[in-house]
Amino acid sequence: MGRMLDTLKNAERRRAPAPPPAIKPPVVDETLLQERVVDWEIGAEVPFIEVGGPNKKVELSPGLMKHPPQIEPHAPHRPVEITAKPKVVDLTPAQPMTVAFEPWPGMTSAPIAPEIVAYHHPEHTASKEYAGLLDAMLAGMKTGTGSVLLLVGSKPNVGTSTVILNLGVSAAQAKKMRVVLVDAQPSRAGLAQRLGCPASVGLTDVLNGTVALDQAIVKTDIAGLDVVPAGNKQAVVASEALSWLVGWLRERYDLILIDGTTLDNADALARHVPHAHGTYLVLAKGEAAPLGKGVAQSIQRMGGRLCGLIHTQFE
Length: 315
What we know:
Radius of gyration: 54 Å
Shape: elongated
Oligomer: single chain
Low-confidence stretches: 35-40, 48-52, 103-108
Helix content: 25-40%
CATH class of the domain at 124-312: Alpha Beta
Strand order of the largest sheet: 3-4-2-5-1-6-7
Largest sheet: 7 strands, mixed
Structural class: alpha/beta
CATH superfamily of the domain at 124-312: P-loop containing nucleotide triphosphate hydrolases
């Protein structure tokens, strides 16, 4: 009985442990397995990159650019003793550059009209007559500087503009005066053009307020002589505006010569006469003086003074 109990005890100790419970594999959705991307098949050769390994010389592919050779470091700088004179390098002289000048439109000066003899032929008899006429006209002025002289034609084409141009040149060249010519007859404008100057704006544009007076004054090629062109032919020169303009010019010039209208334009004559220190009537040689018609009295009633007659003769 006791031997039977020992046998049962030893058998319990030698019994093998119970196996663990079986683990159920997870449920896998077959559709997911079909969508999964497989890089390579099991059993195929696995791609790899070898790092290190035996030292082998491998030639580069022709498509790859070789690394530029490394520059060896410079040796430390040391002072160098110069024993010979430096050589002068004879450089090839530079070739001259070709330059072509193209004038800007409106800047090219036209030649001065040939009838301005006081400019082209200062020693001519006619030039001396203009100089004498200028002396007589200035002698009758008591203003000193800033004298304003108005020249009026007895009719068109008697040479009023030609007389003014020659008087202006004589005053600027012989007497060294600061002279400005004012073209106050838009219907027959031409002072600036005959002096070889462009004229895009002028007197009427200034008096109408479209441009400044400084922009309308044109410098001529004759030292000391400027001109105010007529400007827009359709505008009317108002008396009040002309009074302001003459006052402005008197502060800057010694002599102001106004190329006025003709006797047949009484309205324009009444606007010009009051702003001049003296009015001169220009008429062709041989033409009877219209004093009997009361011209002097008419000018006086307009606020001016008829100072004399200028007879012209053109061949």
